[in-house]
Amino acid sequence: MKWFTKRRGLAWQFGGLLVMSGILCGIFFAVMHLSIEEFLFQQINSPEFQEQATEKRITEFQTYVTVNQLSTSDGAELAQWVRKNPLLLMEIYRSNVLIFTSSAPENQAVLANDTEAPYYEWMSYYVVEFADGNADVLLYSDDGYRYSTIATIFELMLCTLLFLGIFLHGCQKIVRYIQLISKEILAMESGDLDNAITVKGSNELSTLAQGLDSMRQAFRAQQEREAQFFAANQALISEMSHDLRTPLTSLLIYTEVLRYGKYENQEQLLEYLDKIDSKAQQIKQLSENILEYSLQSKETVPELETPAPIEMVFEEPLSEMITELSRHGFMCDVEPFGEPMLIAVRGQYIRRIMDNILSNIQKYADKKQPVRIWPLESELTARLIFENTVADVSSGSSGTQIGVKSIGSLMEKMGGSCQIENTDGKYRIALDFPKVEVEKLKEESTEPGG
User: Fold this and answer.
1) Architecture of domain 303-450
2) Element (H, E) at 205
3) CA dist list (Å): 40 to 30, 36, 48, 89
4) Which tens digits make up the pLDDT trace of 203-237?
5) Each residue of 185-204: pLDDT tens digit?
6) Which residues contact 116 (CB under 8 A, 6 or more apart)?
């Protein structure tokens, strides 16, 4: 019965189920009816069965006559017995003269006829004792029709039950599918969004199941987005806390220098005041942009500044880094920049990146070995490399890596990348910036409105 379940409507399925049930029941009825009719024909038409059935009726008739003391002339009472035995014809003869027939019990012309009827030896005559004497009784009965009618009623009842059984069995498949969908909906309501809703067939139920599964996928995607957003916010808070800590440390150092008068002259005092102001402005800018960054995804591309040579971009940040490293007892080996390499960056991101690199060097670098800084040019990128020797390698202290993650995130926002290597006691951070070709820059500057 799979052929009708592949259709597209429940109404068609139920209709097909009814038709299929009817066809199967019709075939079953035809086979069973023919088989039973053949069996009844062979059994009822046998001489033994006919003789036994007739003798049984004669015995019943004799009892009826004796109890009621009937004579052959009591036609009404005799006809009444015949009516209690349908499909029966009875004739009564005396001296071969017909004196009663159940086909015309009130017909006086027939009963007054004294003509002798022929005697057929192949017919069975039974002697019945009446109140007015003995008489010969002849019975004709259609037992085949009677038993066939009973068998047909039984067959129809059985086929009706079979029809209902087939139809309910087909409906049970649909009911089981509805129960399965209901169970899966309850699981989805309890928070299980990983297991798909079962989609079977191509009817209204399968359409409903497909819609529920699409809703489940949408809920799961929303949950994943919310989880990613929460994780991104947590990472943002960690990165911002880390980025704020470095300029705050520098600010505290400069204020401590001023508090204890550790400056040589007025010019150096003004220089420290400028640095304090710069760090304070950096902290202010970071705090103002926290909300902005929390609403942006990592894929958001920020607006970059006008392309400039890499030595100009890093001139001030490198100078501050070298000064801070020198104050903390680090030696620096800085290689000069070669040919001008134009890069487009965002100054605020560069300051945050340099603060993170400075913080990592101060925490993990060996002061006995110089910190190396050198540029490296390739066909597509301008690279700036920072390398230091790791202090106390055996301790295995690697920190939380928040600063490194922040550097990678900021480089990605500017279209660049960050490469980290930590081998043989050497820790290297390489910043790769996409190069801006000079010819392309000139073409953009000559365009109308450029």
Assistant:
1) 2-Layer Sandwich (3.30)
2) helix 204-259
3) 15, 6, 14, 21
4) 778 888 888 888 888 888 888 888 887 887 777 67
5) 888 888 788 888 888 877 77
6) 95, 96, 97
